[in-house]
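Researcher: We are triaging several targets before committing to wet-lab work. For this one, the compound of interest is flavin-adenine dinucleotide. I'm pasting the protein sequence and the ligand SMILES. What I need is the predicted three-dimensional arrangement of the protein with the ligand bound, expressed as structure tokens, so it can go straight into our comparison scripts without reformatting.
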Amino acid sequence: MTHTPEPTAPLKALPLQIVIVGAGFTGCCLAVQMVRTATVPLAITLIEPNSHLGRGLAYSTVDPDHRLNAPAYVHSMLPDDAFHFTSWCLNNQVLERDPEALWSDGGLYFRRSDFGLYIEDTLKQHADWPATGCTITHLQDKAVGLFNRDGRWRVTTGKGNDVAADRVFVTTGNPVPRLPATFDSELAAHPGVLENPLNNPRLNTIASQSRVLLVGSSLTALDVLATMLRQDHQGPIVVLSRHGLRPKQQAPIPEPLLKARTPEGIAALPGNILLGRILRPVPAYFLEHGQALTLRGMVKALRAKTKEVQKEGANWYAVFDDMRDALWQLWPQLPAQEKRRFLTKMRTWYDVHRFRTVPQSDQRVRSAEARGLIRFCVARLKSVSAVNADSHLEVVMREKGQGDDIRRPFDVVINCTGLDAVKGMQANPFLVAASDSGYIRRDACSLGFEVDAHCRAVNSEGVALHTLRVLGPPTVGSFGDPIGAMFIAAQIYRMLPEVQESFKVNSNLDDDQLLIFHTRVPLM
Ligand SMILES: Cc1cc2nc3c(=O)[nH]c(=O)nc-3n(C[C@H](O)[C@H](O)[C@H](O)COP(=O)(O)OP(=O)(O)OC[C@H]3O[C@@H](n4cnc5c(N)ncnc54)[C@H](O)[C@@H]3O)c2cc1C
């Protein structure tokens, strides 16, 4: 799959031209679901700078200890077939190659790299889909501009391509991690500082005896620790977090889902087992009838229901998961100031319950902690600075309950504070261009871009555009938690009927309107 775009004679094509900007999980999942459900022929172009599709930030890792943070059945490109990925793994002997994927509770926690392979393979299988007359091609390039003339779009790219489109879908995903403000700004270039630890080969070169500080105790920290422990790191490791909250462990696997390890077991289970939960009405106990939804009301309902189920011998997971699965319906009902309150007061608490540990890594980390190799500390980071370019870093922090700041030397400081949405968007020229032209606008919490219930981009005048849609993590401000693979797949599933309906209206465009000015390469 090499892609050297060059001008060609204009193609005459009847299908509607669809451009998807970004081919991580969201872009690929959208293309696959769109092809399968199309009501008119579609020529889909995925614009993505990476040669491998479906990897994005989450699944580019090749580290064998970076696993999916939920069981296999929570990961599928087809939300009405929750076991699509599990079946792919069984058909491709993944468990034979990676027996550690099977955890002692019966759950399958495959490597993220295998999920990346599954996404790409599934995409390729849909590249030419005669049943609906659709095709998918890849333009290996980075989108940098967006223009609209007479209702048609043009996406321009870094390599000088100019791609015409009837519809544009923005699936640019997660922003790359950036250093928080407590770090001196020049430190991003310091050899001892890892600004972005995701898929960073420098993790593999950390000297075994070095003193290492991880800032943040999220799942990224768990990934980093898993890698360092595999490399038999011997120096002291400190994991600093402000609240001292750590991601919770996985919920027990529900009894019926333990069967989802063989083709026969899978065949006996309903494929829409998770989609059904996400699409069902909000559980009544979250809604105080006749009153506007508030954060306080939601938390009160959550607490009361948790107490109730605990009395019956159940645990908090079921109630929390009710809220998580219904959040896409609850969140839009919250006023903007309530959403902001959630971000300042509850975000960390929500995240540690929501994004749960990979059991294989968690066990290894807890055992290293018991041996004194890793210390988790609750502290506020005051500053990180370099003593000089090639020596150690000086960290000033104040531990919880201590009156004074302490100053400590570290050889390596790793940023595990998560993804900075605002800085990430500012660094993406396509998003900057689309926003500057007023085609998209920030949501009320500035976490991403505002969309309506059908993921239509809301422009600077407040109008929802049916020809421009935004999906996945950049819609977090509009839906609360469209982050995990299953929630993204379900978001696409919910949106598509309305999209397919709108395609029918446009399917009789003139050939002239469908000129394209670049060579796209089929996915072979
Ligand atoms: C480290 C990590 C681990 C995760 N693990 C899990 C997990 O185990 N299970 C789970 O359910 N969820 C997990 N997630 C959540 C994750 O958000 C989703 O699963 C999903 O991968 C998001 O996919 P995406 O395509 O929207 O974003 P991304 O993966 O970020 O992909 C976006 C793509 O858009 C491309 N792009 C961006 N800008 C442009 C442009 N201007 N032009 C062209 N292309 C562009 C990028 O190159 C990239 O390939 C994880 C997230 C992270 C960050």
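Researcher: Any quick observations?
Model: The two ends are 7 Å apart (CA to CA).
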